[in-house]
Specification:
Blueprint (H helix, E strand, L loop, with lengths): L1 E2 L15 E2 L4 E5 L2 H5 L10 E3 L3 E4 L5 E4 L4 E2 L19 H15 L5 H14 L4 H15 L15 H47 L20
Helix pairs in contact: 2-3, 3-4, 4-5
């Protein structure tokens, strides 16, 4: 998969020029051996970078993402994937955020700064105003789940903006999210019934054993895409 970077944009009046690499982002899927090492989540959602990725900002920021870094792009709850797909114009920002979040879990970088840089890079890559603020609010809410790794530190400073952004987005996102969640659960029931019927048929066919058995995949419930 190859994601093309956006060309450098003209800064707004009074803004300091911030630059990003214009080279493409190249990633690959995990190998079967790499997927077996991942426990507790769907390994198929992860990719690894092939080439290094660098970010240099006008505030003196410089970050280097090494080849072989594992990312899942934008980690979006399934019920909101219609609004924010896993990858798009914000892909570079999402990979950088994964990198900074990994450092934050190790106590090497503040969560608040990681989330703020995520929003800033989305602005540089042309993500519309409300969309990037909603995505920023999402990662700030996510920081609360990282309380053992310092996610709560200085969270209160962003609380008013996070709450205001969430209140603005809720009327648009809530109803579709409910419909999608119910539809997904109904489909999961259908998938489970089909799996049970096929499993029974497989047991019956084993008595003849004339044809090789086809692979039968168990239904899986996932909260994220």
């Amino acid at each position: 998969m190859r994601c093309r970077a956006n060309p450098l944009r003209r800064p707004e009046d009074g803004a300091k020029l911030e630059t990003m690499s214009s080279t493409p982002i190249t990633v690959r899927q995990l190998t079967a051996a790499e997927r077996k090492l991942i426990i507790g989540t769907d390994p198929w959602k992860f990719w690894k970078t092939i080439d290094p990725i660098e970010y240099t900002g006008g505030r003196g920021d410089h970050f280097y993402i090494e080849p072989g870094f594992r990312t899942d792009f934008a980690s979006v709850p399934r019920v909101f994937a219609w609004f924010i797909p896993r990858y798009g114009r914000y892909t570079r920002a999402a990979i950088l955020h994964d990198h900074l979040a990994a450092r934050a879990r190790n106590g090497d970088f503040p969560w608040r700064d990681a989330d703020g840089i995520f929003r800033r890079v989305m602005r540089e890559d042309g993500v519309p105003f409300l969309q990037r603020w909603v995505m920023w609010a999402g990662v700030r809410w996510g920081a609360l789940t990282e309380f053992r790794a310092g996610g709560l530190r200085e969270w209160w400073r962003d609380a008013p903006l996070v709450l205001a952004t969430s209140i603005v987005a809720l009327p648009v996102l809530l109803l579709p999210a409910i419909v999608i969640a119910l539809s997904y659960l109904v489909f999961l029931v259908y998938e489970t019934v089909a799996w049970v019927i096929l499993s029974i048929g497989r047991l019956v066919k084993r008595s003849t054993a004339r044809e090789p058995e086809k692979q039968l995949n168990r239904p899986r419930f996932t909260t994220h895409t």
